Amino acid sequence: MKFEKLLEILDIEEPEEFKFYENFADLIEYEGEIAYDALFSLIKKVDIVTIGEFIETYLDDVLEGIPEEDGIDAYTFIVSVKMMLTGLAESIATAEEDEERDELPIFVEEIYKFRNWFIRDSIVHMSKENDKTIISVPLLEAIISYRIEKLNKEHYSYNFEDCVPYEIDEYIVSYSTAMAEVEDEEEDADPYLEETEDREV
C-alpha cells in the first residue's frame, strides 16, 4: 500500500489532519493490509504526544471489552502493550533529535505488530449459548460482539485459549515503562520546592 492510499483510507489529505481519536481507531481497525512503510510515513509526521494519548484511550477501551474471567491472558497482554507503546511515545516526545530517530522505527514496528495481531492473528472462539454454534474471529470482532450483546438476543460464551499473544521484547517493555515513570516523576516534582532548595545551597 502506498502512503497516498493510506491517507485516502483515513479520509484525510495530509498527515497533519490526523488529529482526532477517530482517525486512530480507523487506522487500527481497517480490515485490509497496511504496509509498514506507509504507516511509518504517517506516524513520523504526526504529533507523538497526540498518538500516545490516542493509544492510551483506545487500549483502555479495548480492555473494557474483554471479559476478564475468560480472557485474562489477553487482558494482561493488552495492558503490557499499552504500557510499552505509551512509554515509547513519551520517550520519543522528550528525546533529542538523534535519539528520536532511533526509537521511532521501534515504535512504529510495535504498532504495526499489534494491529496485525488484533485484527487478524488473534483468535477467539465464540459459542452461541442457545445452540452452541461456534465461530472463530479475531479479538477485535469478539470485543465488538461482547459490547453489543445487551442489544441483541444472541449471547455468546468466549474461549480465548487460541488468542495467543505474540512475544514482546522484554527490553522494550522495561525501557518504555522506565521512561514513563521518569516522566511521571518529573511532572509530580514541586518546582517551588526545588527552587527553594537551590537557594539554600
Features:
mainly alpha; single chain; 3-stranded antiparallel β-sheet; 3 strands; 9 helices; 201 residues
Tally of extended strands?
A: 3
Based on CA inertia axes, which overall geometry fits? Answer: globular
Largest sheet: 3 strands, antiparallel
Distance between the termini: 60 Å
What is the helix tally?
Answer: 9
Q: Which strands sit side by side, in order, in the main sheet?
A: 2-1-3
Q: Secondary-structure element sequence?
A: HHHHHHEEHEHH
Portion of residues in beta strands equals 5-15%
Oligomer: single chain
Q: Write down the overall mean pLDDT.
A: 84
Into how many domains do the coordinates divide? 1
Unreliable sequence segments = none
Structural class: mainly alpha
Rounded radius of gyration (Å): 20 Å
How does this model look, in words?
This protein has 201 residues and is mostly helical. The chain has one domain. 64% of the residues lie in helices and 6% in strands. It is built from nine helices and three strands, in the order ααααααββαβαα. Strands 2-1-3 form a three-stranded antiparallel β-sheet. α4 runs antiparallel to α5 (72-94). The radius of gyration is 20 Å and the shape is globular.
Layout of helices and strands:
Elements: H1 3-9, H2 21-29, H3 36-43, H4 48-64, H5 72-94, H6 97-121, E1 124-128, E2 134-137, H7 139-148, E3 156-159, H8 170-188, H9 191-200
Antiparallel strand pairs: 1-2, 1-3
Helix pairs in contact: 1-3, 3-6, 4-5, 5-6, 5-8
Brief synopsis:
With 201 residues, the protein is mostly helical. The chain is 64% helix and 6% strand. The protein has nine helices and three strands, in the order ααααααββαβαα.
